[in-house]
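Predict structure. Chain length: 250.
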Amino acid sequence: MKIKKILVSQPEPENGKSPYYDLAKKNNLKIDFRSFIHVESINAKEFRKTRVNISDHTAVIFTSRIAIDHFFRICDEMRVAIQDSMKYFCTSESTAYYLQKYIVYRKRKIFFGKHKLAELMDLINKHKNEKFLVPVSDHHKKDISKILDKNKINYTKAVIYKTVCSDLSDLINVNYDILVFYSPSGIKSLFENFPDFKQNNTKIASFGPTTAKAARDAGLKVNIIAPNPEAPSMTMALEQYIVNYNKNNS
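Prediction complete.
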């Protein structure tokens, strides 16, 4: 049997443009998108229990747009007035520009890296006297603390939103040839929704080593891994696998 149907465990692209659409058209595939996880707010009452005082901080490190949204939301809920002198450090230029939704961009001190937190450290180290706040989810990457601790940065992590499993009960009788995962949380959601899930002939594609490990720890066989030396993106890895698989099963 050839591979014909793929489920990507992420929201459908909003702008109608995605390498996945090109992949589907080129290889005559049906590709569906469905977020296996979603973000929920942590309200002011919950946040107060953490005893984190936002006003004590002079700089904020943002690793995503979601973090920006929830930071300003919690500030609004708690009626925290953010000083004009607050410095903003963002992991990417696009994340930095997203701040325009909440502040007058040209009148604030904003710094950004190329993509990763490690690339932002040169700028952060130049402002070591600041007291940094790092808004995160309840399931965040451990390397954030490792990098900041290694550089002896004075910081506080603030959990301001949480990642929870989505309800996938409507997919119970729907079968796909490939399931594509981008995070360990997606793997967790699969088994929370379908505790008796059996892989059988379903292929598993995973992005990043932590996702692959989570899949294997859950007893799944990982068939497609990205990025890899020959395929830096998931769509490239999928295409290479599908072309070869369908050729051998035609």
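Summary: The first strand starts at residue 5 and ends at 8.
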